Amino acid sequence: TGCKGFRHLELEVDPRVLIPRPETEHLVEVAVERLPPGAHVHDVGAGSGAVALALADERPDLTVTASDLSEGALAVARANAARLGLEVTFCQADLLEGVDAPHVVANLPYVEEGAALAPELAHEPAGALFAGLDGLDAFRRFAAQVRAGWVALEVGAGQAAAVAALLRDAGLGYQDVVRDLAGIERVVVAWR
Q1: pLDDT tens profile 157-167
Q2: Has this prediction a pTM greater than 0.90?
Q3: What angle do CA 65, 167, 165 make, to 5 degrees?
């Protein structure tokens, strides 16, 4: 249909971006509830801009920046921001390359290579879905780059413990895991 509701927003989407999922709303919810007033938060893997724009909409006190490797995705995100009148600064970057924000949120690719996809995912960009044989390649790269003091990551079913361990090894020792409505460990939160 070219559009998708996400939180309180109506986002335009096309084949350059993933269609925002209800599971990702938990990532926004965690950030909205837990980020301190006036914080600078960076959204890695912005796609359509769903997470960054929802944060800017629901927490106007935040400074929100976002990045994506795909210039096509960034064009969609920037168009959504302009149409919605929300202030988010977008840039092209590979994961945390050049990011100095103290707070980071991310919905990274986490599907295992070769996994059977639901029919509605078949037309979406593979680079935004797949992350190696175990689905953790993007998290490994993220953990190797992370300098932020607070991180919230959306993860796939059964990945929370592995992602928490990667973040712990990166020096983010205090952790919490938030379950989605189906009881799946969906968001890993870590801080120094």
Answers
A1: 999 999 999 99
A2: yes
A3: 150
